[in-house]
Structure formats: structure tokens, C-alpha cells
Structure to design on (307 residues):
């Protein structure tokens, strides 16, 4: 499957810029995204390849502009909806409730 | 604001999404909040390159162990107590004066979690995934590693199934060091192949 994720040999992407003494997670939400993704993997509703494919289905420009855990969050949300465990509406509603209570 | 721009500078949208997913999953009893905290603690504090460093140090000290590692890495790594997710099928690559191995995952970010922990951002970045296979020497130069022209560089592309661990060359002047002292010389990057093991002067 060709897509933005198939990066081997692509040019024009700039320097690698490794970060010195990089922390395991950069933001608190990254920890939560990691943990819920791994925990949901144990539900047995999908395997690793399906999880990857969910991330790879991001539109190309979005895939390239997203960080690793943004892709994870996107992929997890897609799989949960596709497997009927959550609905898009309830995710949207909860996000809007949370944005009101946060501000 | 374009959607592309929104995602280049993450924040609230994804933060809200993750929060929403977590709270819904907990409410429905699909995930256990204690298990989430435990997972974070494991990968933030207990599993990391210090594990792989022990494997490498043992291989440097023990030829029988090195032999087992090269023939069945998964089992040999399990002997030290490291196994599990994202390390079910391990392959160990030994560097030599004539061959330098380097690992990438061009398609995503496959990485041997049980021995190296979670991958750093640069390993998951588009430039590394793109360039490691086409111009490994210029990539190595960005990490401050220069190898002689006579050294063959072998680049290994990880898959969802097979994960690699590089055994860097044992630094000179380390004959009298113990296994645990040797482990301190083994950096994460040296086990990915974008670095070399440290020389003993560095840690003294």
C-alpha cells in the first residue's frame, strides 16, 4: 500500500535533529495516548497490523505533519469507532464537554 | 486556519481527543485506570536501553552467550529476563571492523521495546526513516559518527514482526572492566547503529 508512510528513500525532508537527553514522553497527553492505545490492544479487537493501517489511513499531508502520538490517537479513535466500541458522536460530545470544563 | 497547520502544532485538539477517549473507555469498563498508570510507569522507568546494554555487555564478555544471541536472539535475550511486546522476534546484528549495522523502520516506527524501551522522536521522524536507507553515511555524520570508506554499512529495515538489536564493537582498553561496568558504555544509539559504544575514559 503506497502512502505517505512509505518513506524509505524520499528526499527533501531535511535534517534529523536528534534531541539530546530526550525524555520518554514530552507531554502528559502523550503518556495517556500511549497507555490507552496499548491497553486497548489487549481487548483483542485488532492486531498490530490493523493498528498500523489505521494510522496509515490518515490523509498524506496530515500524516506528515503529525507527531507520533497524534497518529496513535487518530488510529485508536478510528479503530474504536470501526469496532463499534465507541461512536464518533460520543467522542465529539465528550471533547466538547471537556473543552468547556477545562476553560 | 488550515487543518494541516492545526496538526503541525498539536495541542488542545489532540489533548482533548485523548482525554475524551480515556474517560469514555474507563466509563465503559474497557480499560482499567490502574493498568494505564502501570503501563506508563513500566515504559517510563523500568524498560529502556539499560536492558539492551546488559545484553550487549554479556555478549562482549561471554562468547557462548554471543553465539546463542546470534542464533536465537529472542531466547538468548529472554535468558536475561527481557521479553514481550514488540520484541517477540528479535535478530541481533554484530558490528565488526569491516561491517557496521544500522536499524530503521521506513514504514512506521518498529523498535525492540523490551531491550530499548520506546523509540526516540528522531527514530520515528520522516527524515530518518527516509534517509537511513538511501544515505546512511550522511545520516551517521549527523550523529557525529564517521566510518572509514572500507567499512560496509548494512541498513536493516524493521517490520512489525522482526526487530533488530545491534551489538556495537567493544571499545579498546576495556579488558579489565566487569560486565556491569561495560554496560555503562553501551548507549541507546550504539544499539540502533547511529552511534558507537563509549570509550572507558568517558565514564571515569
Amino acid at each position: 500500500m503506497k502512502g505517505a508512510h512509505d518513506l524509505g528513500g524520499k528526499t527533501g525532508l531535511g535534517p534529523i535533529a536528534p534531541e539530546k537527553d530526550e525524555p520518554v514522553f514530552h507531554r502528559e497527553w502523550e503518556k495517556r495516548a500511549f497507555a490507552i492505545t496499548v491497553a486497548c490492544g489487549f481487548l483483542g479487537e485488532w492486531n498490530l497490523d490493523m493498528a498500523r493501517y489505521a494510522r496509515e489511513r490518515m490523509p498524506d499531508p496530515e500524516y506528515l505533519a503529525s507527531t507520533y502520538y497524534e497518529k496513535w490517537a487518530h488510529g485508536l479513535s478510528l479503530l474504536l469507532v470501526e469496532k463499534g466500541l465507541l461512536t464518533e458522536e460520543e467522542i465529539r460530545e465528550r471533547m466538547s464537554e471537556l473543552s468547556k470544563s477545562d476553560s | 486556519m488550515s487543518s494541516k497547520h492545526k496538526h503541525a502544532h498539536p495541542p488542545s485538539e489532540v489533548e482533548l481527543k485523548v482525554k475524551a477517549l480515556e474517560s469514555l473507555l474507563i466509563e465503559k469498563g474497557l480499560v482499567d485506570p490502574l493498568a494505564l498508570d502501570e503501563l506508563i510507569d513500566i515504559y517510563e522507568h523500568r524498560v529502556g536501553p539499560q536492558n539492551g546494554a546488559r545484553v550487549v555487555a554479556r555478549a562482549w564478555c561471554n562468547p557462548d552467550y554471543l553465539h546463542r544471541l546470534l542464533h536465537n536472539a529472542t531466547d538468548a535475550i529472554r535468558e536475561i529476563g527481557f521479553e514481550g511486546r514488540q520484541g517477540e522476534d528479535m535478530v541481533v546484528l554484530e558490528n565488526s571492523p569491516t561491517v557496521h549495522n544500522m536499524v530503521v523502520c521506513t514504514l512506521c516506527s518498529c523498535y525492540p521495546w523490551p531491550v530499548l524501551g520506546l523509540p526516540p522522536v528522531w527514530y520515528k521522524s520522516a527524515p530518518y526513516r527516509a534517509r537511513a536507507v538511501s544515505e546512511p553515511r550522511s545520516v551517521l555524520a549527523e550523529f557525529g559518527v564517521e566510518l572509514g570508506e572500507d567499512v560496509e554499512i548494512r541498513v536493516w529495515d524493521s517490520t512489525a514482526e522482526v526487530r533488530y538489536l545491534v551489538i556495537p564493537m567493544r571499545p579498546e582498553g576495556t579488558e579489565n572492566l566487569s560486565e556491569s561496568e561495560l554496560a555503562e558504555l553501551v548507549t541507546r544509539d550504539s544499539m540502533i547503529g547511529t552511534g558507537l559504544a563509549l570509550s572507558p575514559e568517558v565514564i571515569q
Observations:
- The CA atoms of residues 23 and 39 of chain A lie 22 Å apart.
- Residues 68-82 of chain A form the longest helix (15 residues).
- Chain A touches chain B through 57 residues (CB under 8 Å).
